[in-house]
Amino acid sequence: SRDVLRGSQKVNTERLNQAGIKTHFSISPLTAHEWQTWRRSLHAFAPLIFK
User: Which of 10, 12, 18, 31 is least enclosed by beta carbons within 10 angstroms?
Assistant: First the structure.
C-alpha cells in the first residue's frame, strides 16, 4: 500500500539525514507514480538546484 511505501521512504530519509546527507522528502497528495507527481516534484526541486 502507499502507506507502507511512505513509511519506508521516511525511514530512508531519516537514515540519510543521520549520515549527514541532505535530503528532501515530499508527498504528492492524491497521486502516485504519474505525471502530476513528476510535475509537482520538478516544480519543487528545480529551484533547489540553483540555490
Answer: 18
**34: exposed, middle or buried (Cβ count in 10 Å: 0-12, 13-18, 19+):** exposed
3-51 pLDDT per residue, tens: 666 778 888 989 999 999 988 877 777 887 789 888 988 998 899 888 7
**Residue ranges of domains in the chain:** 2-49
Q: Which residue has the cell 531519516?
A: 14
Q: How many helices and strands in the chain, by DSSP H and E? A: 2, 0
Alpha carbon distance 23, 14 (integer Å)? 9
